[in-house]
Structures are given as C-alpha cells and as structure tokens.
Write a structure and sequence with these properties.
The complex is a heterotrimer of chains A (299), B (325) and C (246).
Chain A (H helix, E strand, L loop, with lengths): L7 H32 L6 H20 L3 H25 L9 H23 L15 E4 L2 E4 H23 L1 H11 L1 H6 L4 H27 L5 H16 L4 H21 L4 H15 L11
Antiparallel strand pairs in A: 1-2
Helix pairs in contact in A: 1-5, 1-8, 1-9, 1-10, 2-3, 2-4, 2-8, 2-9, 3-8, 5-6, 9-10, 9-11, 10-11
Chain B lengths: L6 H4 L2 H10 L1 H4 L2 H27 L7 H18 L3 H23 L4 H21 L1 H4 L26 H26 L1 H11 L1 H5 L5 H26 L10 H14 L6 H17 L5 H15 L3 H16 L1
Helix pairs in contact in B: 2-9, 4-9, 4-12, 4-13, 4-14, 5-6, 5-7, 5-12, 6-7, 6-12, 9-12, 13-14, 13-16
Chain C lengths: L1 E10 L2 E11 L4 E5 L6 H8 L7 E6 L2 E2 L5 H4 L4 E4 L11 H12 L15 H10 L15 H13 L5 E5 L7 H18 L2 E6 L2 H7 L2 E6 L2 E6 L1 H6 L1 H7 L6
Parallel strand pairs in C: 3-8, 3-9, 6-7, 7-8
Antiparallel strand pairs in C: 1-2, 1-4, 4-5, 9-10
Classes of the chains: A mainly alpha (299), B mainly alpha (325), C alpha/beta (246).
C-alpha cells in the first residue's frame, strides 16, 4: 500500500482519468438507464451498439475522411447516427415483439443480439485490434498544476456534461420529456392518456442507441477497438446504472463519476484489488439500497 | 382418483438415460467420449440451475460462482494436498453450498432484476478473487496441475487402449452426475419441491399458507449451489486444470441458455438443452468460426417459435396430436 | 376473536388508516365496507402482517400479533383470500390444494417424499366440498374466474383456520356467481364454526349475510353495528350517496 496519495499531482492526474472514464461511461450508461426506465428492458446489446459505433467510426476515418478534426468529427457523428439507425430497425422489427414477454426471455433476446452483432463485427472487420489517432488539433494537452489534461479528454468531459445538461432540459422543460418521466413511473397510464406509446418507445431506443454509438466512436483514440469490448463495457455500464439507480439520469451521472473515481483511485491504494472495487461497490449498493442512490423502487 | 401419471412419466428416465449414455465408450471415438463427458457435467450444472429457474422462479446470472468454487476447491485439494478424488469432489460441492449460503443470504432479500444483478456481482467477486489471489489460485494463469484420478477398478473395460483413460473417467463422471441429477429429481418432486413451485407461481400466496418465502428461496439457492459445485469439481478434473473463467458470469449464461433451450418447465429440459447445445457447438465449429452468430440465431428462433424450449415445444405438439385423435 | 385497536398507517404523509378500531366476534360474520380508496385493503394488510402499522395493536384471540410476519400469523389460525385471485396458476387445482395441505401439514421441508402422494384424502375431500372434483386436474391458471376463487377458498380453508379474512370475495363476479359464492361461504362458515371478516363493495352481499358491519371512509371508521342500524345511519348514507352496486 503506497502512501502515494499524498502527492497532489498524482491525485489530480487520477482525478482527471477518473472523470474521463466516468464521462464516456455516462454516455453509454445513460442510454441503458433510459431504456430500462421507459421500456423496462435490460439491454445487454447496448455494449454491442457501442462497439458498432467504434468500428464504424474507425472505418469512416480509415477509409474515407482521415483524422483531421473535421474528418474525425464527421466520422463520429455519422457513426453515432448509423448506430441510431440500427437501433431503429432493431426496435421496430424485433424488440417490439418482446415487450409483452416474460423478463427472462427479454434478456435472452438481447443476449442473442450480442452474439449476432459480435460476429457481424468480426465478419466485417476481423479480429485484429484497430485504433484511431487523435485528430492533430486535439492531441495536445493543457498543463494544470503540473498535471497533464489532454485536450481530447477535456472534450469528452465537456460533451458528457453537455449531454447531461441537455437531458435535464429535455426531461424537465419539454412536453416529451414530461411524458418520459411519467412513463418511468407508470407505463400503463401513458397509453390511456393517448400518447403514441410506440413512437415514444422507438424514439427512446434510437436516442439511446445514438448515445451508445457516440460513446463508442469517441473512445476509439483512447482505448482502441477490439473484439470483446462489447461484453467488457456492458458490465461496467450495469455497475454504473445499478449504483446510480436504474431509470434515473442524474443517478447514472453520479454513478459514473463514483465508478470512475473508485476505479481510478483504487489503483493507487490497492492496486491488486482494483477489479474488486467495482463489483463490491455494486454488491454493497444492491444490499443496502437496491434501487440505487438516486433511483426509485420499481413496482 | 385418476392420476396424471402417463406411461411417459412412469419410466425411470434417470436410469434409462444413464445406461444409454454409458454405452458411448464402447462404440464411439475419443472425440465423442470427450463430448459426452462435457454433456454429463453440464447436464448436472444446468439441472442445478433449473432448481432455481424453473422450479423456484428465480433467475440467477451468477450461478458460475459456485461452479468455479467447486472446481477450485476440488482441484486444489487434489493437486496440492493429495486429497483423494471422491473426497475432494464432495468437498467441492460443500464449498459451493457454503458460498451459496453466504451470498444467497443477501441475494434472496432482493427480487427480480436486483436479485439477478447481485448474483452477477457475487460471481464477478469470486472471479476476481480467483484472478488475483496468485498464491492460492494461481491467479490469471489458473492452476493447471489437477491430477487425473487413478481408476484401477475399471481397467478391464473392453475399449480401445487409447480411449481407456478417457472412458474410465467418463463412466465415473457419468455415474456421479447421474446420482446428482437423481437427487435433484427427488428434491424437485418432493413436498419441498412443490412448495418451491408455489413460491414461483405466487410468492404472496405462499406466504399465506405459512411459507417463509425468503428462507425457502435460500434453501433452494444453497442446494443449487452445492450441486453446481459438484459439477465444477468434475469439470476441473476433466480439464486437468482450474481457471478463473470457470467463475466468470458468462459460464452461468451458458447454462441459462441450455436450460431455456431444453425447456425450463421440464425436469429434463436442461439436460436435453446441454446435450443439444454441446453437440451443435461441436458440429458447427468444425465448419465455421461464427458459432456465436449461429447460437444467436437459434436463440431468436427459440424465442419466437418455441418459448417453452425443445421439451415445451414437443409437449405442445403432443397435446395437439392427442387432441385431434 | 380478532380485535383491532387504534390502528394507524401512513405512506409519505398520506394517512391510509386513521385510528381504526374493530372487533370481529367468534363465529360471526363481520363486514367492512367503504367506497374505493377508503383503505379496506390497507386495513387487511395491516391485520395479516403484510404491512407494519405505525401505531395500534392487532390481537388474535388475545394474542398480540401486531406486525408479525404473514407466514407466522397464518399458522396461528388466520387464513386470507386476496382481492385479485391468488392461486398457483401453473399448478393444477389438485396440486394447488395439495400444496396448501403440505404447507399446513408441516411437510414443507420434506425433500425425500413424493409430493404427489401427500395428503390425498384431505385434498379429495376438499375438492368434493367445493364441487371441484371434475376439474381437479385442470391447470388452475386456465380456469374461469369463479372457479379460481373457489380454489383460493380451498387453499385458505386447508389450514383449518379459526378466522377467515376475505378481501372482496365477489369482485368481478356475475350476479349468479356472486349468489352461489356467498351461499357456499355462508354454508362453510357455519359448518366449521368459522369467524368471517370480509370487505366488500357489493351492498346486497354484505347485508344478506353479515352479523355486524363497519363502515370505512378515508381511513376512518364512521359507523359500526348491526346491518339495519348501519343502513339508517345518516353519515353512511351521505358517504354512499345512493350506495349499492358499483
């Protein structure tokens, strides 16, 4: 056990990396949380959507636009949109048939999607890891109190908070937002109120897919694109959502930050057991307060 | 009063299937003896899961934890402390049951998705311990020195000498799995099993016929964990090594799929599911590397066409045929 | 037999049960009526241990059972049926009743017997008395609503209870089914000397068989007494405004 935590530079550095991790986890976990809150489905395939976003972004950068700032930006947006589109087809033609089915079979369904998407990706892009270089304009870093804050990481953090704020505005100030909040509390009422429920569900799923794809695309310069990233990320996303509370957006943000920090600082204090930290945290939350820090008990 | 027992139900299936399975080494190649061993072990593992899934109505994602614990306990005892196989095997099962008791105590206080998530977290914690505790578990590399037990009393088997080692272990494993499955069958059909069914169907109602629902769910959890541990012990010996991924949650997902594939509402569903899945896997991987895709498609077809699994589908077919006649 | 004293329960500020006191006399039929939302189910849940009251006591034959877990209360001789039909849908009618006998008969931890062979005589006798013998081997979840209610009654009676609580026993039934069901209940209660406490919506049902009626409104008891007296009570008439069928 090191006494490294007395070194402020190191602490700041860990804080920075923890925050970055938290933000792109938030992007993917927010979609997961939303899908659970509104559609009441635990979407294992969310990690696959994330992975597809990464692969598509890489593909566009590698074959089409190159990694200039503009090119990269286009690739990211296109990839996220493509994944959103995939989400549309999945929801419209497959998912909607399993809403009425027992939970166990819904899980089975999303797991089947994981298997299928995983192999589709393998088929198209092979098994070798690939990655995208950061665009030149974003590969520098700020020097804050002796700690390096890469421009790219800062951008991700800003995007994360931006999306969180966007959600806040959307959920609290728009009529669709109000409907979604109502849906999270009582779905059956919605139909009775005359809302076009199927449109709502499709919209939600597409939005969640878009965010997952966005997250995947943005992470390519940091983590690279490898097979298996879908399963790895979905576990992390579950942990975040459980800690924060299934269906609560602020909870997801809080959960992401907590998770990011725990993992980041856990490595300093107990390097050997950092992989425990996340699961023990998840278990502790489930035992003490199952519906998460900011969640509500589900009916 | 007319009983519901048809001819089909009166056949002692455990005995019949075991005897059938026991003939494998005498006419099949090593490849099939290997597969058959795999099937027997996973049949036990999946049937133990179904005590929770189909009988009690609980959906654990983390059943792999007890499989892994059983494997490590049995394997390490045999490898490091030269404990005889049968004893280590039983201790593996007890190890699984013990941890199931500890984890289960917390898990059964939760319902539905939270229950599932907590069992998942528990499995990952077990995995993490196996992964990191280098001194004891061998860490990431696992422990590849689990000895194959000597089985001298079966040396007379009339099989090809190259298959003898495998055949001997297969028959022992088959016998042990058959006993395990038989015990699970007795439990499922017992009054206790009926109470578990009542909890599955309507926990609130069960409370009001005097059942402390949490306590009974815990008992089921412990029993299931124990038998999973036994299966794990066998698996470790069979593979000559124990590795952290035995406790990784995706192992539990495999048996969940096997159970659903075979049909969770039938006792033999998980066994059939295990057999079909393992055989299919064996067949498909020799043609293509895209087994996950094939599995995914099978699952989708299953979901939309045969939600009751293979045995469920057969039963529906049977009823329709009987109805017409 | 059953005494409820000053029971109080609120949920995040909303007072569902407000200082409720009630007595159900041995061998008699007591009804609790009230409009929707009056708190009838909450009251029942407080009595049967599904909810723990904030204040007050519940006494069964003199014993304090306040807040005790449901599975223990039912072993003391209290049985309950629920508003939404509560049976074991995937088991047959026969198996439903058998499960109840197994539980009440202390065989719940028997892992070596064969469930099918347990308590056959008792199950068959119960089927007879409920006129369910013909459908004994049908899956309970596939049966008509009325039949399911009877199965539920059988499950409740399997434990040979001394007091039976029924939460809206005729909810969702046609007039014919209601009549038959009430006759059955009445007959069985008299045969076994059961104390009956039930909640109901249907006025006619209540007045025909009750010995005593308590009227619940917004969590409070506003009137208690013999049916004729309650019917004439001014506040009751006001609350029910033309009362009668829902």
């Amino acid at each position: 056990m090191h006494l490294a935590f007395v070194d402020p530079t190191l602490m700041l550095g860990q804080f920075r990396s923890g925050l970055t991790t938290a933000m792109f986890l938030f992007l993917i976990a927010s979609g997961l949380s939303l899908i659970f809150g509104v559609l009441r489905i635990i979407n294992f395939a969310h990690g696959s959507l994330y992975m597809l976003g990464a692969y598509i972004a890489w593909h566009i950068v590698h074959y089409l636009v190159g990694n200039s700032l503009v090119g990269f930006g286009i690739a990211v947006l296109l990839a996220a949109s493509a994944v959103g589109l995939i989400g549309f087809f999945v929801e419209r033609f497959l998912l909607r048939h399993v809403y009425k089915v027992a939970e166990l079979y819904q899980l089975l369904f999303t797991y089947a999607l994981v298997l299928i998407f995983g192999d589709v990706a393998k088929f198209i892009w092979g098994t070798q890891p690939v990655s995208v270089q950061r665009p030149a304009l974003l590969s520098g870093y700020f020097d804050i109190a002796g700690v390096r804050m890469p421009h790219y990481d800062l951008m991700i953090v800003c995007i994360g908070f931006g999306i969180a704020y966007g959600f806040y505005v959307f959920l609290n100030r728009t009529s669709w937002g109000r409907i979604i909040r109502a849906a999270a509390l009582d779905r059956e009422m919605l139909g009775a109120l005359g809302t076009n429920v199927s449109l709502l569900y499709t919209g939600m799923f597409v939005l969640a897919a878009f965010l997952a794809g966005l997250s995947g695309a943005l992470v390519t310069p940091i983590k690279g694109v490898v097979p298996g990233m879908d399963i790895e990320i979905i576990l992390d996303a579950f942990i975040v959502v459980v800690i924060g509370g299934l269906g609560s957006l602020w909870g997801t943000l809080l959960g992401s930050i907590i998770y990011g920090m725990v993992v980041s600082f856990g490595i300093l204090i107990f390097p050997r057991f950092s992989i425990f930290a996340a699961f023990i945290l998840m278990a502790a939350v489930l035992i003490i307060r199952p519906w998460g820090l900011l969640g509500r008990p589900i009916r | 009063m007319s009983e519901r027992q048809s001819l089909l139900e009166r056949i002692p299936w455990t005995l019949v299937l075991t005897l059938l399975a026991a003939t494998v080494p005498f006419f099949a190649s090593r490849y099939y003896i290997d597969l058959a061993t795999y099937i027997a072990i996973f049949a036990l593992f999946a049937t133990s899961l179904n005590l929770l899934l189909g009988t009690t109505g609980l959906v654990p994602f983390g059943h792999a934890a007890y499989f892994g614990i059983g494997a490590y306990v049995c394997g390490l005892l045999m490898g490091e402390l030269q404990v005889p196989f049968l004893l280590a095997f039983v201790l593996g099962g007890l190890g699984g049951a013990l941890f199931a008791a500890i984890f289960g105590f917390f898990c059964v206080r939760l319902t539905k998705v939270y229950f599932s998530m907590l069992t998942l977290a528990c499995a990952q914690i077990v995995w993490a311990i196996c992964f990191k505790w280098n001194e004891v578990t061998g860490g990431e590399q696992g422990y590849p020195r689990v000895p194959m037990p000597d089985i001298p009393f079966l040396d007379w088997l009339p099989v090809h000498p190259r298959s003898l080692q495998m055949a001997k272990f297969y028959l022992v494993a088959l016998a042990l799995c058959a006993i395990g499955i038989y015990l699970l069958r007795r439990i499922t059909l017992s009054p206790f099993g009926r109470i578990l069914n009542s909890i599955r169907d309507n926990a609130e109602r069960a409370q009001f016929i005097g059942i402390d629902v949490r306590r009974y769910q815990l008992y089921a959890f412990i029993i299931a964990g124990g038998f999973a541990g036994l299966a794990g012990g066998l698996f470790g010996v069979y593979k000559r090594g124990v590795f952290p991924d035995y406790a990784y949650w995706t192992k539990g997902a495999e048996v969940l799929i096997m159970s659903i594939l075979g049909g969770i509402n039938h006792f033999w569903g998980p066994t059939i599911g295990a057999a079909v899945l393992i055989l299919l896997n064996g067949a498909v991987v020799s043609y293509t590397e895209y087994w996950p895709f094939v599995l995914g498609v099978i699952l989708l077809v299953l979901l939309f066409a045969f939600p009751g699994g293979l045995l469920g589908g057969l039963e529906t077919l049977w009823r329709r045929v009987k109805g017409r006649g | 037999m059953l005494e409820v004293k000053n029971l109080r329960k609120s949920f995040s500020g909303f007072v569902a049960t407000n200082d409720v006191s009630l007595t159900a006399e041995k061998g008699k039929v007591t009804a609790v009526i009230g409009p929707n939302g009056a708190g009838k189910s909450t009251l029942f849940n407080l009595i049967t241990g599904h909810l723990v009251p904030d204040a007050g006591e519940v006494l069964l034959e003199g014993r304090d059972i306040t807040g005790i877990a449901p599975h223990r209360i039912c072993k003391m001789g209290m049985a309950r049926s629920f508003q939404r039909t509560n049976i074991f849908p995937n088991l047959t009618v026969y198996e439903n009743l058998q499960a109840a006998f197994i539980a009440y008969g202390g065989q719940s931890l028997n892992m070596f017997g064969v469930a099918r062979r347990q308590f056959r005589d008792k199950t068959e006798a119960m089927l007879e008395s409920l006129a369910l013998t013909d459908v004994a081997h049908m899956v309970a979840g596939e049966m008509s609503h009325g039949a399911q209610k009877q199965v539920e009654l059988g499950i409740a009676l399997a434990g040979d209870p001394t007091i039976l609580l029924l939460d809206e026993p005729t909810a969702g039934m046609s007039a014919q089914e209601t009549r038959e069901s009430i006759e059955l209940l009445d007959r069985i209660a008299k045969e076994r000397g059961l104390t009956l406490l039930f909640t109901e919506h249907d006025m006619d049902v209540v007045f025909s068989i009750s010995d005593k009626i308590a009227v619940l409104h917004q969590g409070r008891i506003i009137a208690t007494g013999k049916p004729e007296d309650v019917r004439l009570d001014a506040e009751v008439r006001r609350v029910y405004l033309g009362g009668g069928k829902h």
